[in-house]
Amino acid sequence: MSSYGALFRAPGFLRVITSQLYARFPFGMMTLAFVMHIQQVHHSYAVAGLALGADTIGAAISGPVLGRFLSKYGTTRVLVTTASIGAAAMTGIGVLNAPPVAMIALALVVGLTSPPIQTAARTIYPTLVKKKDLPAVYSLDATSQELIWVIGPVLATVLAAQVNTMFVVVLMAIVQVTGAIWFCSNREVSHMVIPSPDRKMGGVLTNKVVLTTAILGLLLIGGFSGVEVGTVAIVPKAMAGVVIGALSLGSIVGGVFLGNRVKSRWSLTMLLGLVLLGYLLLWIAPSNPIWIAICLFVAGLGVAPSLGILGAAIAGNLKAGDAAEANGWASTGQLMGYSAGAALSGIAIDSVSNTSAFLVSIVFGVGAILVAIMAVEIMNPSGKQN
Predict the structure, then answer these.
(1) Which of 8, 48, 129, 229 could bond 35 through an S-S bridge, CB–CB 3.0 to 4.6 Å?
(2) Residue 181: exposed, middle, or buried by beta-carbon count in 10 A (0-12, 13-18, 19+)?
(3) Residue 83 belongs to what domain range?
(4) pLDDT, tens digit (0-9, with 9 covering 90-100), for 239-284
């Protein structure tokens, strides 16, 4: 915990991580808010699902591009502009009784203009702390993100029940704009000049660290997506959110107590092994909600620290100009993993059984460990910049 104390004492760090947490909060509410609202308007989960898919595809496409734009056009201009356009599209989804095609198109705009707050923050962190503290920084960043995924869905559900779904969607739009403005008002952000990338668009993927980070992010988040879909299929709906939340809770605990203890080059492999252990334990009682929650908590212990190592590897091995785009590719990998895990788990459930979704997560988990073992020499946050 001592290294975390040093982080909070670093000038500007607390301001940056707090404001980026607020600015990213709508992402934790978006899935449920869009599903509840669009289903209520059009009485169709299919339309809601297509809208969510369009949002995810848009964000996956735009992530690396907007990462480059941060250096080309400036952090404040890019973040405030994308946040405002996305908020306008969100507001359209919330207040317009638009036909399904228009709803899906608006959701695509939301994804395409998803403000790269995370990319910007992760590019700025290395300027605020010492290089040896980077693994702890990115683990803390991933831990704070879990708070979004724990609190966001609950808040969206409560507000939808107490007010209405339109209010939730419009509230997300307001938070997105005000969050971007707050984040950019920090002098550490507004005065930050990200150098122009050394490579052409996509060129950073020739860097082994970037490519490995994107692949590992895909496999790690794909596994989480699989158990999420499986849990929804198995557990009573009233309990599903709480059971899935156990993974995020485990991730928070792991981030706090393990994230600042990353010392060995084998740390990533061991943490991913902890995630896989949680998935394997599910097979002892795959239909028991309490046991599923315990297993997901165990798996979650390795998630935030693993994401912390991935973020630190990019920061420690690339120059700032290339790191912005690289972080965009890392986010794209995670989004692709989430979509792939959900799709494959859904197919497994329809073709075999509800519990077969957990097998999908195990395959993702094994794949992540194998990649981590093969890449143990290059996933080093203190490596030379390329």
Answers:
(1) 48
(2) middle
(3) 1-194
(4) 777 788 888 889 888 887 776 666 678 888 999 999 999 999 998 8
